[in-house]
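Run log, item B.
One chain of 133 residues. Sequence copied directly from the ordering sheet:
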Amino acid sequence: MKYRRPKKQTAIPTSSMSDVAFLLLIFIMLVALINYRKTVSIEYAEAPNALKVSGNENLEIWVNYGGSIFIDGNPAGFETLEKTINGIYRDSPDTRIHIIADKNTAFENVDAIIALLQTLEYRTVSFVVKDEK
């Protein structure tokens, strides 16, 4: 008498696929938040012939309408600004500083930052504006 083995049914278990898809979705959402850039809501100044500058490592100094200073989206004072600029200049002197000021802010607010940069002898500075087109 011949013994017959029962045939095994080969099937891919799909009951855990929704769990895998859910975990993948969470992972993608978390990775997307890593590159989140903080911004300050300002009204950009306009310029007819704006030069486009690109760079990976920039320090952004934001000045809002009231004259408050933000470094990369985080509130800061002049002491913090000076320490940050000194640290960046020491670590990587080629880092470009972008000054992003509201077009309705008082000039004295931007002039104080420029005076600080002149005192620290920082030379790679850009003013960020909106193209007039």
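Observations after the first pass:
- The mean pLDDT is 79.
- The longest helix spans residues 17-34.
Flagged for discussion on Thursday.
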